[in-house]
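From: lab user (bench 3)
To: helpdesk
Subject: output format question, protein + glutathione

Hello, I'm new to running complex predictions and I'm not sure whether the block I got back is the full result or only part of it. Here's what I submitted:
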Amino acid sequence: MITVHHLNNSRSQRILWLLEELGLPYEIKRYQRDAKTMLAPAELRAVHPLGKSPVISDGELTIAESGAIVEYLAGTYGGGRLVPAAGSAERLRYTYWMHFAEGSAMSPLLLKLVFDRIENAPMPFFIRPVARRIAQQAKNWIVLPNIERILNFLEAELAKSAWFAGAEFSAADVQMSFPLEAASVRGGLNETRPRLWAFLKTIHARPAYQRALERGGKYDFLR
Ligand SMILES: N[C@@H](CCC(=O)N[C@@H](CS)C(=O)NCC(=O)O)C(=O)O
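Helpdesk reply: Thanks, we reran it on our side. This is the complete output you should expect:
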């Protein structure tokens, strides 16, 4: 039995979605974020030293890192589904997006989250203007332009094919779902980028996505 170590309201939601797409049985072990810091509880470090979610256990195996988990599940249990044929142009695109999601797309979104928090954090009144100015300058200088460029790039890529790897829905779309959802709640992604917006609406309407939401619990990355 596959166990998903699921942190509430997190990236591990897409692992539940993939498992539902593949029709695999799985169980969920739940972990709750600290209400104040939003960090994962220390018990998750007993599963993997970094204490981040998602992590899955499958028999003797413990696998961390969303992209590795997605590739493992689709490759091991997909029976050819959701993974383009080896050697095809689609497979190269699949690999690209599988890495891009966490390697490139998430970094500026995470930085935005951190600088937004610094801007709004409680602190002595004489420090606040300085902290706000530094946070705003960092956002204007590097964070927001990068998010803008990435979203423009992704919007243009979806003009080439219906899904990220090509004409067929693949596990790369599952992997790309989280940065796009995060961008829709904190990165300015909205209807003005119609292809990305339609991508989100389309995946959210999939029955497997809906089943995963029911099992995963409250998820604040939907707009
Ligand atoms: N690149 C990693 C990122 C893992 C990660 O940062 N997960 C977040 C959940 S969205 C987490 O566990 N945050 C809680 C913490 O850092 O304590 C992956 O895709 O698996």
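A quick orientation on your result: The chain has a mean pLDDT of 97. Let us know if anything else is unclear.
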